[in-house]
Design a protein that fits this description.
alpha+beta, about 30% helix, Thrombin, subunit H, 6-stranded antiparallel barrel
């Protein structure tokens, strides 16, 4: 039976709160766009604060208007993943002179890309730790297979 998955932009704030947020910090670049426009403005570096199936939060030096569309580029090793998102809130992060920008993914495949990137970063971290534990260099392929063996069922329950 196919699960009914709601598109993030159609969710209410209450619906969004039901998603599990994972505090993860990995690099990204973003560029603000307009509806139907190509990317405008310059690309800005940042990093994630947290990630959920519906969106992510990142820090910014300047505020980004609610409702703006943004293109996010998320690197992993020699690959770059492009994700389209919509700003749902932007709040001052306090005395740090930064802003917390919350976005929802524009399409379901963007949400899937980010979950994939999250898992890749976690596998890379697992690889480093496992290499230390074993006292030898573990390949990314070997670490991936072990990660899947250990955690794939948990991942499935958490996200889908």
């Amino acid at each position: 039976m196919k699960k009914n998955i709601m598109m993030p932009e159609n969710l209410t704030m209450q619906d969004r709160r039901r998603f599990i947020r994972h505090p993860l910090c990995f690099p990204l670049r973003y560029r603000v766009t307009g509806k139907g426009e190509t990317a405008s403005g310059r690309e800005t570096r940042s990093s994630t604060i947290n990630i959920s199936i519906g969106g992510l939060m990142f820090s910014a030096k300047k505020p980004v208007d609610k409702g703006k569309l943004i293109n996010i580029r998320m690197p992993f090793q020699d690959k770059v993943f492009n994700v389209k998102a919509k700003v749902v809130h932007c709040e001052s992060a306090g005395d740090k002179k930064l802003y917390n920008v919350g976005v929802c993914f524009y399409r379901m495949n963007d949400a899937f890309k980010v979950k994939l990137i999250e898992q890749l970063y976690l596998i890379a971290e697992f690889r480093d730790l496992w290499s230390i534990q074993l006292g030898r260099e573990v390949s990314l392929e070997e670490a991936s297979k072990e990660w899947i063996r250990r955690y794939s069922r948990r991942f499935e329950r958490l996200y889908w």
